[in-house]
UniProtKB/TrEMBL annotation:
The chain crosses the membrane at residues 12-32, 38-60, 72-90, 102-122, 131-149, 155-175, 187-208, 220-239, 251-270, 276-294. SUPFAM superfamilies: Multidrug resistance efflux transporter EmrE. InterPro entries: AA-Vitamin_Transporters, EamA_dom, EmrE-like. PANTHER family: EAMA DOMAIN-CONTAINING PROTEIN, INNER MEMBRANE TRANSPORTER. This is Threonine/homoserine efflux transporter RhtA. It holds the Pfam family EamA. Keywords: Membrane, Transmembrane, Transmembrane helix. It is a multi-pass membrane protein. Belongs to the EamA transporter family. Its main location: membrane. It comes from Lutibacter oricola. GO terms for cellular component: membrane. It is found in: Membrane.
Length: 300
């Protein structure tokens, strides 16, 4: 009974956190209606959230400081650049061209990319069941993507490419940072990486753009604030708490509601609709990723 109580207590927290994360794509699409620049929008999200992460980094110290070496901080810079700056930038660019629901489906394949990257660079074996699950997952993506191409223009290919890059860079971050998190702890490591990411976004803005950012309607800044707090800061702690309560394996099962929640939110707030073919592809993707995630968690 204690096991079920532990799992059940984490389920509501997990669901709320996942739905909050899913709402990010909806807010980005809403902000684009005001002709906001991609870099500016990403900058708003980071600037609104970074003060909180700086406070967290100041008050919550690393978990095992005796194991931390100076070069570990250089690795944090690298993974903050890859996992939060690049992944977020590619995601925001991709959302200019494709639906929020399709974006979440493509992003959802990152566990399969983790397996493939681990295989290529670290020779981690992939079982037959995992390989079949990966093939099933990409079949679902192709079906969903094809269903969108039939009703949209060639920009869908460009948007899908950027979202795939986002999933790839985030998967690379997960593979590379796994050995650092036990040293720093999840919360300090995430805070450090987010601070690095914010610095990268500011540098990007100053070098590439540098134009005035206080030129948009107030709705853009409200959406930027909501992205920072409602879809970044709060859900990051909710998800960490849920994983702690119910375990990563159980959480991975609940995580499959991510694409579904985005599709539902996109239907109500963006008037996005999916065809039956796209819904079929979505279910196939969720099934394939669920198999991959479950297998991966068990082996760990």
């Amino acid at each position: 009974m204690s096991f079920f109580k532990t799992v059940n207590s984490g389920v509501p927290i997990a669901i709320v956190g996942i739905v909050m994360f899913s709402a990010k794509a909806i807010m980005v699409k809403l902000a684009y209606k005001y002709q906001v620049d991609t870099v500016h929008l990403l900058l708003f999200r980071m600037l609104f959230s970074v003060p909180f992460y700086m406070l967290i980094a100041f008050y919550i110290k690393p978990q095992n400081p005796e194991k931390i070496q100076k070069r570990d901080y250089l690795w944090i810079v690298l993974f903050g650049f890859i996992g939060y700056y690049l992944a977020s930038y590619f995601d925001f660019v991709g959302l200019k061209y494709i639906k929020a629901g399709l974006e979440r489906i493509i992003l959802f394949i990152y566990p399969t990319l983790v397996l493939l990257i681990s295989k290529v660079f670290f020779k981690v074996p992939i079982s037959k069941k995992q390989l079949i699950a990966i093939l099933i997952t990409y079949l679902g993506v192709i079906i969903t993507f094809w269903g969108e191409v039939q009703f949209n223009n060639s920009n869908v290919y460009l948007g899908g490419f950027f979202i795939f890059l986002s999933a790839l860079t985030y998967a690379s971050y997960l593979v590379g940072s796994g050995w650092l998190i036990p040293k720093f702890g999840v919360v300090p490591f995430t805070s450090y990486a987010m601070i690095v990411s914010t610095i990268c976004v500011v540098i990007h803005y100053l070098i590439v753009d540098g134009e005035a950012i206080f030129i948009y309607p107030y709705q853009v800044y409200i959406l930027g604030f909501l992205m920072a707090i409602v879809s970044t800061l709060i859900p990051s702690f909710l998800v960490s708490s849920a994983i702690k309560k119910m375990g990563a394996s159980n959480f991975s099962i609940i995580g499959s509601i991510g694409p579904i929640s985005t599709i539902i939110l996109a239907y109500f707030f963006l008037n996005e609709k999916l065809t039956m073919l796209q819904l079929l592809g979505t279910l196939i993707v969720i099934f394939g990723v669920a198999v991959v995630s479950y297998k991966k968690r068990v082996k760990l």
